[in-house]
Amino acid sequence: MLISVNNYTWKQNYEKIHISLPLKNVQYSKxxxxxxxxxxxxxxxxxxxxxxxxxxxxxxxxxxIIKPNEVVLELVKTIPEEWETLHExxxxxGTIEIKKQAIQKKQENATILKEKNEKEKTDRKHFLQEYxxxxxxxxxxxxxxxKDQQKKKALEELTIWKGNLKDTTYSSNISKKNFKNNDKFVxxxxxxxxxxxxxxxxxxxxxxxxxxxxxxxIAEEEEWLKKEAEAIRATGFIPNELTEEEKNxxxxxxxxxxxxxxxxxxxxxxxxxxxxxxxxxxxxMHIFYIKLAETYLKLNQYCKTIENxxxxxxxxxxxxxxxxxxxxxxxxxxxxxxxxxxxxxxSAADCKSARDLLI
Length: 359
Hints:
The chain has 359 residues and is α+β, with helices and mostly antiparallel strands. The protein has helices at 92-180, 218-235, 249-253, 268-281, 286-298, 302-315, 324-340, 344-358, and strands at 3-4, 9-12, 16-21, 31-35, 39-44, 47-52, 63-66, 71-76. Among the domains are: 3-89, Immunoglobulin-like (Sandwich); 236-358, Tetratricopeptide repeat domain (Serine Threonine Protein Phosphatase 5, Tetratricopeptide repeat, Alpha Horseshoe).
């Protein structure tokens, strides 16, 4: 329920009017003020103040001053004169008409202000465009002027060079004639010898990272490489320290080697590095993809398991008697991976395929 504020006070001078409203602890964010030439409405929480002015005011110059115990409205008169009363006595129809006119005028002013702002924005945009075009033209003219100067300078140097070349040729011809006639005439302008050709050899320094080398990043890169080397060394499989026999991919698959004990000791990271090395050396061998799928499954990397199992199944085509058991094993591994990522339909399909192969 709204409470009308009637116990206000007002005073005036020749140009201004001050209205004091006894409102305490008024917050600016919760104060709503509507001002037009002959109508003022102030709303704060449950309090409301409305006044229909006797004469018109300049609404754009109105000030609202918030104090601890009151709110003061400072109005500027349109015509400097003394007012007999602050408000005008109107009937209901008159108040409605004035409110309607005030709202309509406020909307018109808002429309005019919006159009003015849009026009100013458009003008600023056009000014910036014209400024950019003028700057572009100035830069272009400056560049053309520099090009013309360089061109003129080059033509002058070329003309001088051609003149020297003609003098050199003429002197050489005279020297040949005089040499035939055993004359002792010597050309004063020496003929330059042709330049010696050669080759420039360069080589690129080895680099692990794909980005260019920077001195500010050397310490960070060396620290990272050191951590990577320690992590690889901790797995027990270091490709750079393998012998020639151990670099053979078939040696990695033989039972009894130290690589085959990785699964028994649950050193799955070492097994992963070994099988990744084997896949790099022999990318056409399906057995490495099968081993990688089984290793990734132990490491709970199900997407990698599915990827390597799918490649293994593609390499085990066509389906023959000799690869039926391998295909069934790969289907089982991929079914487990699908099950762990909640792809139950795909898991069931792989289980059915494995069962059909073993029947």
